[in-house]
Amino acid sequence: MKKQLDRREFVKIGGLVTAGTAVGLGLPLLPLYRASATGEVADLSGKRWGMVIDVSKCRDGCTACVDACREENNVAHHDDPRFDIHWIRKAKVSRRVENAREISMPLLCNHCDDPPCALVCPVQATYKRKDGIVIVDKHRCIGCRYCLIACPYNMRMFNFKSNHEWHNETYPVRAHGVSESCHFCHHRLDQGMEPACVEACRKANQGAIVFGDLNDSSSEVSKIVADGRARALREDLGTHPKVFYVGL
Amino acid sequence: MKIEFAPLEGKSPQFYLFMLVLFGVAGAGLFATYLMYTQGLHITGMSNRVPWGISIVMLIYYIGLSAGSLVLSAMSALFGRKEFKPFARIAALLAMLLLVGALLSMILDWGKPDRVFVPFMYFNFISMFSINGILYSTYIAICFVYLLAMFAEKEKLVGVIALIAVIWAVGVHSGTGAIFGFVSRELYESPLLPPSFITAALSSGTALMIILLQLLFRYTERPFDQRYVKELSRLLAVFILVVAYFLFVENSFRAYNIGHREAASFFLFGGSHSMVFWIGLIGMGIVVPALILFTPSTKNSIKMINIAAILHVIGVLCERYIIVIPGQLHPADILPNMNVESVALDGAIVSYSISFLEVVQALGVAAIVAIAFMLGLRIFAMLPTQALIEDETS
Description:
The complex is a heterodimer.
Chain A: H1 2-26, H2 30-40, E1 49-54, H3 64-73, E2 88-95, E3 103-108, H4 116-120, E4 126-128, E5 134-136, H5 146-150, E6 157-158, E7 179-180, H6 186-190, H7 196-203, E8 209-213, H8 220-227, E9 243-246
Parallel strand pairs in A: 1-9
Antiparallel strand pairs in A: 1-8, 2-3, 4-5, 6-7
Chain B: H1 13-39, H2 54-77, H3 88-109, H4 118-121, H5 128-151, H6 155-181, H7 193-219, H8 227-256, H9 261-269, H10 272-294, H11 302-324, H12 326-329, E1 338-342, H13 356-379
């Protein structure tokens, strides 16, 4: 009997100590919570980000989106096509017929709703966020490069070399040995801004890229997608990309 | 007849010299890995378009070779071929160590091998790599218990574990094939890959055992019945035919199916990998060994059988190469029926050249496996003092 009481008392004291420690450690964090709750970060709940690219407005030779992405995200350029990293890149595309018109268009991570890269990642370093962005946790990535193999669009890139181009000091550079790809500039979205490529394209007077919330049926992207003119790349694969192209 | 086991003598100068060479190669391999780890994988032949190189080839090669050990142990424990019992211990040891070699190839290939514990903390149970990681490590554990049971001479338990090991091996080999077969890449995607991987595993593993057993018994100067070689060569002959059959089905599917024809012609006639396919795999790995093993005048010659086995072991290495590499050289079809051109080499056929460092690393892992195997034989009573088939008449 005495022994049981002892144990109960022990649990009580232990519980109090644990709770006290937790509150004590947690208190200093409270201002942080308040800061985020008072609107310094945009409210992004319920969003599902998507992009529409009108290739008829995309100009050959214009690399505004690519340059902006490099500047914003410190994307590494090593002057070697084997190791250069591209989150967004310009491609020249033409139908395999005679006298085919050459189309200029950007290619970037499609942020698939069923991303094969996340499917194969053995450590869940690549995952799809609630807002649909497919992102890599570079602190968890083991560098096995299975995502590069699995991506049917070849949009995954691996840091074969360390990245020293620190254009944007507010965004980290990456060490060699981890994979990466476009993440729709999630850090800019948090501040209520658009991805860097979208802004750059508009500033270059092209306005070929439209970005927005696919969950909001009144957003421009939703309207274009609902319209039926937009096509995603390799829709037959069942990956359900959230980057769409008009005019392909 | 009671089978007696004894450790290797391991006192001859040759033994020490052999071990010294192995340690040297292992050291070189680890140094190559250190260079890759500190400088980044750009010092290898890999690239963003060809992210998997020799390490992955070796990973699946090791997995396949381990199947031969299983054949040997299953022969005595499951199929009642008691004359194969002398090899049960070395077979289990080798299966275990080859799996370790496979895991080592996999981990040393990572961009961040220091994050080796991360996969234990965060599983993605639908990733083929995670599934295989679990299958490989449990298989190592099964082989270890199997070995213990044999040392304890618990006959019934050995039989049960052998059965479990065989079932588990089907998973291990299928899972390895699925790393590629279940990915939607034109020259990877194939439900045939898991079963065809199993057959090439059985054939290459058996061929390896044919060579290895003879070497072990010759250099330890222990009596060895050549009839074992003939027995195993009969199995090898059948396995080789099944491998050829799977290759035929897979490639004729690609060549026949309009959508895959372009990729098929790239695979079969599109570059240096096609030479690896035709000369390495089809010629050395299948046609010549099959001719040797089915021609009445050569099929009973130990020398010819050995040539067939060596050629086939090399041939299956070529097979592993063409599983991994050509599928990456061929571009992803991002926009069907369109020509695509970009700075990231979209739509272009790329090349991969094996780098010296990758080869050194691969040899290093092989040396580590060999060191562990030799030490196992040296310390524990694994190798039988003699392996002779008893004649029923005597």
